[in-house]
Amino acid sequence: MTQNELDFSFKARYSRLGEINDDTEQVWFVIHGYGQLAHYFIRKFALLENKNTCIIAPEGLSRFYVNELKEGGFRNSDRVGATWMTKENRQMDIDNYLTYLDALYEKEIGKRKIKSITLLGFSQGAATVSRWAVNGRIHFDRLILWAGVFPTDMDFDRGKELLQAKEMIQVYGTNDPFINPERLNELESFNTKLNIRPRRVVFDGKHEIDEATLRNLI
């Protein structure tokens, strides 16, 4: 048995709040976490929208039913979520979503001169947005990792060269079960490896996008 690969045309969706036009000064690309969908995730950023600001939410290329099948083939709910990658053929997943994100950037931004472009990744999306920031064919001004960390296999040499010139913010809740002392130590070691000193924002909350905290990042 041989395992083979092929290239083919692929359609993917994304969500957007606002329009990009001559009045646009700020664009936010917001990358969802595991098991979320873009058109729900983007609602958490509605407070950012105005005539000068556009928010764009890409969506993971693999979707699945969040709840497992019960006996008899039933689920408690038909809720669907998306993921950016799994451990199975992970590099292909990474290559595919980087191609998708670059294509999205080219379609929405292209050669337009935008005053400020923010990349925000939540949870699993933090690793996704980090890879895109370092490996993508894009320009951005600010990178926000929210309730997540850099991926261990990121190109840290390239990241060190690129990210020192960017505004870096790391956000997490005090009661986030995924951000424990070990995870914080890992995050700090990555910061040292990249030779960056991000602004750290901590809020009283869990694994979530906190509205008041988000408002303070505008």
Describe the structure.
The structure is a single chain. Strands 1-3-2-6-7-8-9 form a 7-stranded mixed beta sheet. Strands 4-5 form a two-stranded antiparallel ribbon. With 218 residues, it is α/β, with parallel strands linked by helices. The relative contact order is 0.13. The longest helix is centred in the middle third of the chain and has 19 residues, at 90-108. Helix 5 (181-194) links the parallel strand 8 (167-173) and strand 9. It has one domain (14-70, 79-215): Rossmann fold, CATH 3.40.50.1820. The model has no long low-confidence stretch (mean pLDDT 95). The protein has 6 helices and 9 strands, in the order ββαβββαβαβαβαβα.
SS-derived structural category: alpha/beta
Helix content: 25-40%
Principal-axis shape: globular
According to CATH, the homologous superfamily is Alpha/Beta hydrolase fold, catalytic domain
Proportion of β residues? 15-25%
Number of helices: 6
Tally the structural domains.
1
The radius of gyration computed from the alpha-carbon positions, rounded to a whole number of angstroms, is 18 Å
